[in-house]
Amino acid sequence: MMRAADTKTFHLTRYATPGLLLLLLTAACGTLPGRITGEPPQATIDGIQRSGNTLTVEVGLRNMNDQPIKLSEATIELFLSDTLLARARQATTMEIAARGRDLLRVHASADRAGLAQLDAITGQGSAAAWRMILTLTDRSGQQQIIENQGWLHPVPGQPDNYR
C-alpha cells in the first residue's frame, strides 16, 4: 500500500517528467548553431567547350551560406598541367540562392601553350591535371578567392568538349 507522500511523489513525477522533457527540448532547439554567412562558395570545373582559340569554361558554384550571394564580377585563371590555359574577367549579375547551386559560364581566349596541353590529351584520350583560381566579387565590392584542382579529360564522342 502506498503512503500519501509516495502518492504525491508518484503523481508529481508522472506529470512533471513529460513537461520537464518538453522544456529541455525547447531549450536545446534554441541553442542550435547560428546562420552560416560569409563562407566562400565551393567551385569546380563542370566542363569546357572549345571553339578554335576560344573556350567556354563552365564553373559549378555551390553557396554554403544561409543567404544568397549576389555577384558582380568573376575572374578566372585556369591552368592545365601547370601551364596557363585561360585567364578571363567577366561581369555577371548572377545570384546564387541560399544553400543553392548555379553554373557560371566564362568565355575566354585560350593561351597557346595551354591549347597545346589540351590538344595533347585530346589526341591521347587521356587526362591532365587542372588548377583554377577563381575570384568572385559581390555587389558590395567584397572579393572571395577560391582555388580548386582536379582532372580534365575529353568527353567521349563529343569533340572539343572536356570535363
Which key phrases capture this entry?
163 residues; four-stranded antiparallel β-sheet; alpha+beta; 45% strand; 9 strands; 24% helix; five-stranded antiparallel β-sheet; single chain
What can you tell me about this protein's structure?
- With 163 residues, the protein is an alpha+beta fold.
- Helix content is 24%, strand content 45%.
- The chain contains 2 helices and 9 strands.
- The protein has helices at residues 4-29, 112-124; strands at 42-51, 54-62, 69-80, 83-91, 95-96, 101-109, 128-138, 143-152, 161-162.
- The strands form 2 sheets. Strands 3, 4, 5, 7 and 8 form a 5-stranded antiparallel beta sheet that branches.
- A hairpin with a 2-residue loop joins strand 1 and strand 2 (54-62).
- The longest helix has 26 residues, at 4-29.
- It is elongated and about 95 Å long.
- The termini are far apart.
